[in-house]
Amino acid sequence: MELINPRTFLVVANLLGFLCALVLWVQARSFPADIDGLHDWAKAVVLIGSASGLSSLRGIIPDGVAIVFASALLLLGELLLIFGLLRYTGRKAHWRPALDAIVGVVLLLTWLTYGSHSYQGRIFIMALAHIGFFSLGGWLAWHAKPAGFGSRFLTSAFALGAAVAAWRIVTLSMSVTEADDSFDRSLIQQVYLGAFSLGILGLSIGFILIANERLREELEFLATRDPMTGALNRRAFFARADVEWARSARSQRPLSVIAADIDFFKKVNDSFGHHVGDLVIKDYALRASHMLRLPDILARFGGEEFIILLPETGLKEACQVAERIRREVEKRQDKALPPYTVSLGVAVANAGHGDFSDLQALLAHADAALYKAKQGGRNRVAH
Length: 383
Description:
By secondary structure, the protein is of the alpha+beta class. It has helices at residues 6-30, 38-55, 63-88, 95-114, 119-142, 149-172, 187-224, 234-251, 265-272, 274-290, 315-330, 359-375, and strands at 255-262, 297-302, 305-311, 342-349, 381-382. A five-stranded mixed β-sheet has the order 2-3-1-4-5, sandwiched between helices. A hairpin with a 2-residue loop joins strand 2 and strand 3 (305-311). The chain is elongated, with a radius of gyration of 31 Å.
């Protein structure tokens, strides 16, 4: 059976590298700046593709370029893959130790090329480096957020790369000669170079997938969340609340609402400025969210007004939650903010304490209770 010339695999890897780099570069220019790492991945794929192209010219150009320099480009490309992932996951990248290690590997490769003329030694050293890079890349990809199909695909691509490099070490024992047979047409070499070419494509697809998943997550956040506090916006609140209302009606379990308003908020803005007012709103949202359970829903309805939805919570329990929030705000020790308090109104449905025709009626009752709390002197809970 006629096998493919190994140089063909390297040329294909070179072309795939530049094509994938172009796609990554276009994405990097169109994605938000906080989705970091795309430029690093594009540069990395260019370096890896360039290394493949130079390697395919072995015997035409000097070994110092086709072997040593190409290996250096390959290692730098793999380093950029890792550093791009570090940036993507919000971790700090330390260049100096990694570059020192690459310089050491390149010097060793130079000696193995011109000193000992050890083909198997070069393969062994590079395979070890690949295993290290791909194992670290797989670990970072596994812990990348969001943990969706993209991160799992990328993890699998890195794991496959590490497995192929380990398999390459194992197959060194099958070689009976120390001659440089980089372009022999053995099945082992065919499989190895074919896996290398596909690996470039697989990693690039993985990077594109995780970047798109992050973008989709950010767009969903912007569509459903208040940008200042991270609480749900009105639209997202009603989408969630309608579901909880229907569930409460079916199960005849209580559904409680807390309407909250920061007391004398206009005075805070007038006395300290709108910037401080924004900090007070953020502070309240953070403190209130810490008092809630996972199924509870916190939403900002505008200005200093917040709504909290408490599924399967009766009047007594809802009043206790509201009181905990009020006390948490009252006792806070943040000297960077002016003192402030909150008033809260509680309403409950399907628990014998109120018969409301719909969610809007329940919210109106919570607003009436909030007004009652303010009329009673503020900094209190009413129902």
